[in-house]
Structure formats: structure tokens, C-alpha cells
Amino acid sequence: MRPERQKMDRNVFALSLGLAGLLLLPTLGRASPVQCSAHDTVAAELARQFSEQPHAIGLAQDTTVMELYASDKGTWTLTVTLPNGMTCLVAAGDNFETLEPTQVAKGDPA
């Protein structure tokens, strides 16, 4: 399979998982009334309702922005901001922890 096709298939799969997450969001138990809205509105609601602040951000090849919000109480929310500027909730939960980066040993492991 050509590398471009693999990237496209991976992106389509990731977007379908995000869509599935949006469809399942009401079943997560603490779904916010805001499911998709302007980025500033979503960020303000996550801060107001759950005291969540941004902890990580990433950019997909299709210019979709992923953000992970978390609170000191351990709640977390994963959002995606689409190229049109709409931010949507993908998943949410509890027991968020920040991990220290793992050091990988260099050289021959034997």
C-alpha cells in the first residue's frame, strides 16, 4: 500500500473514532451541555464547570487540532477543533495523571 494511502486511511480512521466519541459522549456520565461550539466557548465552559485547563495540544495532518484539558481534581476532556473553527468534545473522564517522560537506554540492551 502506498504511504499516502496509509496516511489517508489512518486519518479517516482517526476521524471516525472522533465521530464515534462524539456520538457516545452523552453516555459518559458527565457530558457537558456544550458538545460543539466556538473554541473560546468550549474552553470557558470546561474551566467553569470542571476547572479544566489545557494540558496538551497536537496538530493532525488535516489541520484538526487536538487538545487535552484536565483539572487538579483529576477530571479530563479531549477536544478537537476542526478547520472551520468549531471545537467538539470527543471524550471525558476521571483519574487524570501527568506522567514523567520515560528515559530510553541508548546502546545495546544486551
Number of helical segments with 4 or more residues: 2
Between the first and last Cα atoms, what is the distance in angstroms? 35 Å
Main structural class:
alpha+beta
User: How would you write the strand order of the largest sheet?
Assistant: 1-5-4-3-2
Nearest-angstrom radius of gyration?
17 Å
| Record field, number of beta strands | 5
Helix content range: 25-40%
Q: What percentage of the residues does DSSP assign to strands (E)?
A: 25-35%
CATH arch. level architecture: 2-Layer Sandwich
Class, according to the CATH hierarchy?
Answer: Alpha Beta
**What is the averaged pLDDT score?**
77
Low-confidence stretches: 6-14, 22-29
Oligomer: single chain
Number of domains: 1
Globally, the shape reads: flat
Can you give me a brief rundown of this structure?
The protein has 110 residues and is an alpha+beta fold. The chain is built from 2 helices and 5 strands. Strands 1-5-4-3-2 form a 5-stranded antiparallel β-sheet, sandwiched between helices.
General description of the model:
By secondary structure, this protein is of the alpha+beta class. The protein has one domain: Double Stranded RNA Binding Domain. It has two helices and five strands; from the N terminus they run αβαββββ. The protein has helices at 3-24, 39-50; strands at 36-38, 53-59, 65-70, 76-81, 86-93. The chain has a five-stranded antiparallel beta sheet with strand order 1-5-4-3-2, with helices on both faces. A hairpin with a 4-residue loop joins β4 (76-81) and β5. The chain is flat, with a radius of gyration of 17 Å. It starts with a helix and ends in a 17-residue tail after the last strand. 15% of the residues are buried. Residues 6-14 and 22-29 have low confidence and may be disordered.
